[in-house]
Design brief:
There is one protein chain. The protein is built from 5 helices and 10 strands, in the order βαββαβββαβββααβ. The protein is an alpha+beta fold and about 260 residues long. The chain folds into 2 domains: about 100 residues, Alpha-Beta Plaits, CATH 3.30.70; about 130 residues, 2-Layer Sandwich (Alpha-Beta Plaits). Strands 1, 2, 3, 4, 5, 6, 7, 8, 9 and 10 form a 10-stranded mixed beta sheet that branches. Helix 1 crosses helix 2 and helix 3 crosses helix 4. The termini are far apart.
């Protein structure tokens, strides 16, 4: 039977989602826990392959299980074998045509920036850090100009393997909460490093290095070298993956940061 699991994890100590030869991928940890719970090896498929250092409060995976268990048993049973940094939040049985990646209709990420002259140990490996004052209004204006369906070649990494650079950006909001700045971005799908490259460009605008219209100029140029550097992974969270309502799955949750203000 096909089982869908919702995951939350702290990615700081992992080499990203994808399996690694040394077993340092989140996928390796999850599959090992599932093997202990089920009694045999299974392979899992995720909705979005997060990079090293990236976190998730709404990751979704599926697997084909040789055994049947109640939903609560999947949550409690698998969590028994997982480290404190990874947790199964919910479980559902679905039809065999469900696919965690290809059935997804929308994905949402949040990027959190600590905007403070002094670094904070309480936010280490949980947020990006910008010590210069950020103009959040200018960042939000720039973000809004990028909404819609575009060629995002200027914001994809050189290692990106996507067949097409065209994506539909459906939400791109920037807001301040005390010394923290939250960037929330949603799209049908994302290119490799796309969110972190978009954030880097907004930061350049926020510190006054470039005006808000620069974001649109970078987009139109389709040249990765013209955009800002890729921003740090530590402030990025995969928070929500949405599917057709017929699957009756939870839609994830916002990133919940301790010591927000």
């Amino acid at each position: 039977m096909r089982i869908v699991l919702g995951l939350e994890y702290d990615g700081a100590r992992f080499s990203g989602w994808q399996t690694q030869k040394d077993g340092s991928g989140i996928q390796d940890t999850v599959e090992a826990a599932l093997k202990s719970f089920i009694g045999e090896s299974v392979e899992v498929v995720c909705a979005g392959r997060t990079d090293a250092g990236v976190h998730a409060s709404g990751q979704v995976i599926h697997l084909d299980s040789p055994v049947q268990r109640e939903s609560h048993a999947w949550v409690r049973g698998v969590n028994r074998y997982l480290p404190q940094s990874v947790s199964i939040r919910w479980a559902r049985e679905v039809a065999s045509d469900f696919h965690a990646r290809y059935s997804a209709l929308n994905r949402t990420y949040e990027y959190w920036i600590l905007n403070d002259p002094v670094r904070s140990p309480l936010h280490d490996e949980r947020t990006g850090w910008v010590f210069q004052a950020l103009d959040v209004a200018a960042m939000h204006t720039a973000a809004q100009s990028l909404l819609g369906t575009h060629d995002f070649s200027a914001f994809r990494s050189a290692e990106c393997q996507a067949a097409s650079p065209v994506r539909e950006l459906r939400q791109f909001d920037v807001e301040r909460s005390g010394r923290l700045v939250r960037i929330q971005v949603a799209a049908n799908a994302f290119l490799h490093h796309m969110v972190r490259n978009l954030v880097g460009t907004l930061v350049y605008i926020g510190i006054g290095r470039n005006p808000p219209r620069w974001a649109l100029e970078v987009l139109a140029g389709r040249d990765r070298a013209a955009a800002a550097p890729t921003f740090a992974a530590c402030g990025l969270y995969l928070t929500r993956v949405e599917y057709d309502r017929a699957f009756d799955l939870p839609n994830g949750s916002e990133a919940s940061l301790p010591f927000r203000p």
